[in-house]
Amino acid sequence: MDFFQDEGLNRLRERMRADELGHFELFDPARQLTYAEREALDSGMLNTGSQTLRILKDKTLAFKNTRIWLCHDQDYHLAYCQKVQSLRHHQESLQIGTGTFPSNRNEGVCLECLAVLQYQGVDARRLRRAEFSEPIREQFSLEAFKQDYPFYPII
Ligand SMILES: [Zn+2]
User: Fold this and answer.
1) Residue 39 and residue 125: Cα distance in Å, rounded?
2) What's the gap in Å between 152 CA and the centre of ligand 1?
3) Which neighbouring-strand residues pair with 28?
4) Under a CB-based contact definition with an 8 Å cutoff, are residues 136 and 124 in contact?
5) Distance between Cα 77 and ligand 1 center (Å)
6) Ligand 1: distance of its center to the CA of 31 in Å?
7) Does residue 140 register a pLDDT over 60?
8) How confident is the model at residue 103 (pLDDT cuts 50, 70, 90)?
9) pTM for the model
10) Among the residues of 25-117, which ranges form H helices?
11) CA–CA gap between residue 70 and residue 77 (Å, rounded)
12) Whether 84 contacts 50, CB under 8 Å
């Protein structure tokens, strides 16, 4: 059901806006995470249709009003790299999450994604050299990443 198409709710919303005594924001499940979705994202993974994946201006990935990581073949993507572009177009459903990587392997982070973001000076040229790319993966911290790119909530 689309809340914005519902006559009764629209009238209700108008009435609430007219009320000067208080601000009241309607929860919009099309754009805001439900409690169940937050739980699923945080504790593991959520399967979602690829059309629901959002690409933010900074090239990070989002679902509704949270940034997310996307898991595919044990790789964890944080940005719109070429792999994610192809998954988005060829895969019907995507596995996404917000908590620590389920396998707890920071080495699973996709370096292409970090290069897209130029995260901590990572760029495509350096990635071709193994002596650079291995330590980057080992030292990657999702917690630190979230300080630069807060996950939830985003607008
Ligand atoms: Zn990637």
Assistant:
1) 38
2) 20
3) none
4) no
5) 4
6) 24
7) yes
8) low
9) 0.81
10) 35-43, 82-90, 111-117
11) 5
12) no
pLDDT band at 16; cut points 50, 70, 90: low
Question: 101 C-alpha to center of ligand 1: Å?
Answer: 14
What is the distance in A from the centroid of ligand 1 to the CA of 128?
Answer: 15
Contacts of 56 (CB under 8 A, 6+ apart): 62, 67, 154
Phi-psi region of 38 (alpha: psi -120 to 50; beta: other; left: phi over 0): alpha
Å from CA of 28 to ligand 1 middle:
30
What is the predicted pLDDT for the residue at 62? 98
Report the separation in Å between the CA atom of 118 and the middle of ligand 1, taken as the mean of its atom positions: 12
Residue that has been written with the tokens 């995507």 in this structure: 94
* Gap between the Cα atoms of 100 and 106, Å rounded: 9
Neighbours of ion ligand 1 (CB under 5 A): 77, 81, 83, 110, 112-113
Helix (H), strand (E) at residue 8: helix 7-18
Contact between 140 and 134 (Cβ < 8 Å): no
